[in-house]
Write a structure and sequence with these properties.
The structure is a single chain. The protein is an all-alpha fold. It is built from 25 helices and 2 strands. The protein has a two-stranded parallel sheet with strand order 1-2. The longest helix is centred in the first third of the chain and has 18 residues.
Length: 460
């Protein structure tokens, strides 16, 4: 036993010639052999035999895009095998495993969406880098369902097509042709739909092309365009007539749970003066209060006491509750209203803390925690009222809310991506927004550096 692993006598080790005979069997699996030896710690091969299988397995991994979780495990096993057999560089192989662990998330990592949004947003203000950015991210996104498990991330390829349609629509035919060749029919449809959104219907060629549109998605896009483009109406009418009519969309049926929610009682907020806010929160926590009432009760309470001339008193009571909360439910959804009321009754300087708190507590820099409408409304307020303090707003909101900081015992750093870019553009910091986008693109591409991403010659 040497260095914690077992090794056989040199005259008992499997030679390269004998090993090649075994590997020629249709039942043989190189990855399984490496995995078994990594698990049992046995060094059974001569140096040349071990080096042969190691080099071939490295070459195999280097020639195929694979899911990052599996790839990290494979490099780790190869590193262990190299260490056991004392061949190759175990340290270099282990670094490659670490690169995969720290690279793009193999499951439900949607940061690519952040990158695409940033590119599209900056393009509206400065289009000079759009081509370079899209050509950098397209090869990676085209393979994203290969190095992830595809859960949620498959939508990223559709988002890429939408971004191209919004920035460089002249590339859409290349995307459509590529996906047709790859038999990725859904993505081919996405490219077609983006093209239809911008298709000019002037001239016989365009009209003839439009007359080939048969799917509900394309016809739905024409239907929306019909409201603004007089050329669309005749084409759409011809297609609907050709298809024998248009299927109406089914209406939404009420769910039993929604009906049950509607029957739950409401809270009379006027019965709870500012000093009894804790009692109101307790009432809102009761099980017979509807979810919507739980969400909006405090909001209505603030607005009620503002109409009674007691806005400052109500805000002070709310702030006192925020500082000792044992639950983040209910109060955080009213922080934007608290900002508006503070702005009107306490002034711009005092209201800033409420806007900061709202953005932190409502996960304002995250993309999928609350609605885009809510987040963008708050960022616009910050841009309008605190344009000169944009750096303070970013710095002060780059942390968890006090409640979650108390829960975790420390305050984590929160860095925005697409919403940071959008905010910088709202306050006129185009160069900084462009620099952040460039960093997002560079980081995204570097996260897949271990993958043999093929070039996109079809995009050239």
């Amino acid at each position: 036993s040497i260095g914690g692993h077992s090794t056989g006598r040199a005259d008992k080790l499997i030679s390269l010639a004998d090993f090649e005979v075994a590997r020629s069997s249709v039942h043989w699996s190189d990855p399984d052999w490496v995995s078994e030896r990594s698990a049992d710690g046995l060094a059974l091969l001569t140096t040349d035999a071990a080096l042969s299988i190691l080099e071939q397995q490295v070459q195999a991994l280097d020639s195929e895009v694979t899911e990052f979780m599996q790839r990290a495990a494979a490099w780790c096993e190869l590193a262990h095998f190299a260490h056991l057999q004392k061949v190759g560089s175990a340290a270099a192989l282990m670094r490659r495993s670490a690169d995969c662990l720290l690279g793009y998330g193999y499951r439900k990592d949607l940061s690519a969406m952040e990158v695409l949004d940033a590119i599209a947003q900056v393009h509206r203000h400065d289009a000079t880098q759009t081509v370079g950015w899209l050509k950098a991210v397209t090869p990676v996104i085209d393979q994203i369902t290969e190095f992830t498990d595809g859960d949620e991330t498959r939508h990223t390829r559709s988002e890429l097509i939408r971004t191209v349609g919004a920035t460089l629509p002249e590339l859409l035919p290349a995307f459509h042709r590529h996906h047709i060749e790859q038999e990725d029919w859904n993505y081919a449809d996405d490219a077609l739909h983006e093209f239809v959104k911008q298709l000019s219907l002037e001239g016989p060629c365009a009209t003839a092309l439009a007359s080939t549109l048969l799917d509900p998605g394309s016809l739905g896009i024409l239907d929306k365009r019909n409201l603004e483009d007089p050329l669309v109406g005749p084409v759409l009418a011809h297609q609907i007539d050709f298809l024998g009519g248009q299927t109406p969309l089914a209406g939404k049926l009420p769910k039993d749970s929604e009906e049950a929610e509607a029957k739950k009682k409401c809270v009379t907020v006027g019965r709870y003066p500012p000093k009894r806010l804790a009692a109101l929160l307790s009432t809102l926590s009761e099980p017979d209060i509807s979810y919507e009432e739980k969400r909006t009760g405090l909001r209505r309470w603030l607005e009620y006491w503002e109409t009674k001339g007691r806005a400052v008193e109500a805000l002070a009571a709310m702030e006192a509750q925020l500082d000792k909360l044992t639950s983040a439910v209910f109060l955080d959804e009213s922080l934007d209203v608290a900002f508006r009321i503070s702005l009107a009754n306490e002034g711009k300087e005092a209201a800033f803390r409420w806007l900061v708190r709202a953005h932190s507590s409502r996960y304002g820099w995250a993309s999928y925690m609350v609605s885009e409408e809510e987040t963008m409304s708050r960022l616009r307020m910050a841009a309008v009222h605190y344009r000169e303090r944009w750096q303070d707003f970013i710095k002060d909101t780059a942390t968890q809310s006090p409640y979650w900081a108390r829960r975790s015992g420390h305050r984590s750093l929160v860095i925005g991506q697409k919403y940071l870019v959008r905010f910088l553009l709202l306050v006129g910091q185009v160069e900084k927004a462009s620099a952040v986008t460039a960093a997002l693109v560079e980081s995204f591409v570097s996260e897949v550096q271990d993958q043999p991403i093929p070039s996109t010659k079809w995009l050239s």
